[in-house]
Amino acid sequence: MPRKTPLYAQHNRALNLEYAGMETFALGQETVLLGTAGSVIERTNAAGFAYFAHKFLDGDRSPREHYLAGPVGSDDAETVANAMREQIAEVKDLVPTLRMLGREGFNLVDAKTYSTLAALHNHGVFVAGGMLIGSHAYGVLLNRMGVRATPYATEDIDIARREALAFKKVPTKGLLDILCESGIDFVAVPSLNRKEPATSFKQKGKARFHVDLLVPSANESFPTVAVPELQAHATALPYLKYLLSESQTAMLMAREGCCSVRIPLPERFAVHKLVVSRLRIGREAKSTKDVEQAAVLLAALADLYPGAIEDAVAAVSKRMMKHLRRSFPAVRPVLEERSPQAWAELTGED
Fold first, then answer.
1. Which parts of the chain are beta strand (E)?
2. Averaged pLDDT, 173-194
3. pLDDT (tens digit, 9 = 90+) per residue, 83-117?
4. At 127, phi and psi to the nearest 5?
5. Rounded Cα gap, residues 293 and 133, in angstroms
6. Contact at 8 Å (CB) between 203 and 210?
7. 249 touches 125 (CB < 8 A)
8. What is the pTM (predicted TM-score) of this model?
């Protein structure tokens, strides 16, 4: 009988050390550049005022210039320009390592995703308690666990918060304006019920790239909930509170740079994915992806962090457990033979 293909593979120690060093740097950044590193240039306006600007490619890969300081030659302007030059040099030093990690199987997001999440990072959304969930969080989790698996593809960014974000200083801009700082022209997506406010934002035009704002639902309904600190509204999802109850900070990587984000714990992410897979009615492709991602994380957890799955299952409510058990027939063919320890921890079977 042929041996089953492993659900994941571990990166070697040298690569994981490179990743760890990069993550230490990323988590220490207060602000990050919103596109390519670019360069500092001098410009002169129509009145003859000479100033410094930052020239770069934004999240939509369009040329962009951002005013820094002036006039050229003043001490204050030179200080600002030199600080930007130092930040640009730091990023350019990191880029070769980021791209090497990408070639070796670590997950890198595309330019649009990076600039969008970098804008949220710069406004303190993740520090305040906002969380990246969905497939991009799955990629970050794989990186942080030091494993690689079948690549994922998505044009969705899912941002969630369990309770009011604890900003030290509430942003003056609303979520839509913050997203547009990425250089991508976001617009609000009208709700199916025209009386309800938008909870999703997409790139203007035919592009499918979009951001959804999510909060926990008190039951199995999907109400629209105000998020006043972001001047926005969110869709409430069943059982999301379970996923958001514990979190960690981690590094998001792209070819352009890296930044810190907040993500769920892998064991809760996996269990929640299985539950959600049973709630997706008429969306078989999404359900299959949920099960596959859950299986990979469960297999890695069983090998690397024994007992974590049992702890995550023990925290499941009775109502949620009903849906989790309904997922067992779907995940069993993937998990039982390829990771029997994970199957045992998930189901409680010896």
1. 9-10, 39-44, 50-57, 63-69, 131-133, 147-148, 156-160, 186-188, 200-203, 210-216, 224-227, 232-237, 247-253, 258-264
2. 92
3. 999 999 999 999 999 999 999 999 999 999 999 99
4. -65, -35
5. 13
6. yes
7. no
8. 0.94
